[in-house]
Specification:
CATH topology: Cytochrome Bc1 Complex, Chain D, domain 2
Structural class: mainly alpha
Helix content: 40-55%
CATH superfamily: Cytochrome c-like domain
Mean pLDDT: 79
Strand order of the largest sheet: 1-2
Order of helices and strands: HHHEEHH
Number of helices: 5
Low-confidence stretches: 20-26
Length: about 140
Amino acid sequence: MSKMMILILAIMLVGIASTMTLQSCNDNTYVQGARLYTFHCANCHMEDGSGLENVIPSIIESKYFGAKLDSLPCLIRHGKANLTTSHSMMVDMPVNYQMTEYEINNVINHIFVTWYPDREAVTIQDTKKNLKDCPVPAMRYGQ
């Protein structure tokens, strides 16, 4: 086989492998959301979303996935001081200014798929609008 044929064959194999890798990344559209949740949220809210009993609120029982859904992107981005848990404890949710609007959207949709399967996915347009409309809180410790 000539060097040119070997080069062409090698390029084709790399192309096929790249396509297979990209396809496997796209098999689950919430992979990034799951990874971001694990990195940014699971230390407090736990992998199973249960929270830390009497200390950190459960995502599964959160009011932010009901009537306060529009404020969820703001809560993720800006955190919240003095958040009252279901056991009347005051806790602070940290800010996540390093997360992009797309990452916030993906985390929300991962949470929906995992714990609220009856909910429709949130669009990036909704997340952008909600982030634009949310008030910027006063600076807090840790920002």
